[in-house]
């Protein structure tokens, strides 16, 4: 299998512009005694840590909330946020490349993170990426 070449990674300004097309409103997150709205388009990936989820944002900051990855997945648009592995959810707007190795498929994100794709989810993940790219091309046309 050859490495899949994706379209050129999007700039932050372009991501913000496209976010409205994909119904990416603000996400309300619980904190100690209050709730805070975070722009969904700034989330690069989410990482599960037991009963907590670590958010990785486009500016390099991280934020931990006391919700499971499964609960967070239900709050995110499934056409933009995909779960390639039980421990991660990635934002396809920040996908840089797909890297097939001998036994393990992985993806790289624009912030430098590399996330493995589980073997069981690989074919569905590739299908989701292709569908997303088609949506993106339709928006830009």
UniProtKB/TrEMBL annotation:
<dbReference type="InterPro" id="IPR007492">
    <property type="entry name" value="LytTR_DNA-bd_dom"/>
</dbReference>
<dbReference type="InterPro" id="IPR046947">
    <property type="entry name" value="LytR-like"/>
</dbReference>
<dbReference type="GO" id="GO:0003677">
    <property type="term" value="F:DNA binding"/>
</dbReference>
<dbReference type="Pfam" id="PF04397">
    <property type="entry name" value="LytTR"/>
</dbReference>
<protein>
    <submittedName>
        <fullName>LytTR family transcriptional regulator</fullName>
    </submittedName>
</protein>
<dbReference type="GO" id="GO:0000156">
    <property type="term" value="F:phosphorelay response regulator activity"/>
</dbReference>
<feature type="domain" description="HTH LytTR-type">
    <location>
        <begin position="37"/>
        <end position="131"/>
    </location>
</feature>
